[in-house]
Amino acid sequence: MYTGQQKKVSIIAILEILYKRSDADHRLSAKQIIDYLWTDYEIKLDRKAVKRNLMDLIDLGYDICYTETPKINPQGEEESIFTDWYINHTFDKSELRLLIDSLLFSSQMKYKQCQDLIDKLIGLSSSYFKDSVKHIHNLPVNVQRNPDLFYTIEVLDEAISKNKQVSFHYTEYGIDKKPHLKMNKNGEPQVYVINPYQMVATTGRYYLICNMDNHDGLAHYRLDRITGIELLKKPATPIRKIKGAEHGLDLPKHMAEHIYMYSGESVRVRFLAQRSLMSGIVDWFGLDFDVKEKDADTVEISVIVNEEAMFNWAMLYGPRVEVLTPKRLRDRLVKVTAEVAEKYVVTNKA
What's CA 248's distance to the chain center, in Å? Predict the structure, then answer.
């Protein structure tokens, strides 16, 4: 029991009760709050004290809701009954589910990190929300995760905010299924000195949009493959001085053009596609493309996109897509598809 401290802690206890035990679907009467004060904190308050604390919390800016009902007392005087108390949580249930689902589908974080973050999100709502998601878990994945991911994000966030360069090593997987540092021509770990501009999430991965010092154009690096990151004192090159970004970074446009986050220039691509693929085209390219009908089953699309990304996208959708221009991209697809077809030709060899 909070002997001698009851008045000081009662308002905090009431606030905790509202956060833990109330929401728009689970409202509390004054009696319920009084009962929880005793069972959870061994604090005794009467209705007037409870109401006074609740009103003080409202005056302090807490988003607490209630129902006020007029009533005539035995003396014939009009008074109000206050009940149905609840607090509006920072996130509603659907917003929390969206955030939790994004973590469940993340392939970047270690299993334990993901579960810890989900527990923190669950704690932002009432206990009733916790009951509704207690059977939802992500599965431990059979891939080694980078334990430095959160630290990498923290350093990059500071570097971008302060317009500073960073240096790091970069990893790639070997035939032993383990990540290894990329090496330079001298057989030493390659040190990347980077001007960082933006972190983005796409296709289930986190990427850094940046410029490699003393190189032209923008580049992309997977955050989960960055290790040994260090914040440098040297100022980062302003993005407007980078080739292709003279007007700054138009992020929606950049993401639409770099659907697989390949580096390099974007080009105007014309291709034919089955009409049934329209939803997929919008998913990958957004709405910034031109479309015209060719026939009942085919449309022609014109879009500005990274050429390497378009090559991989066209390979992904295979017979449902035909690239018309640029010619070098079409010729490359012709060559590669012929090579693929040759590997699967059925022969009569014994």
Answer: 23
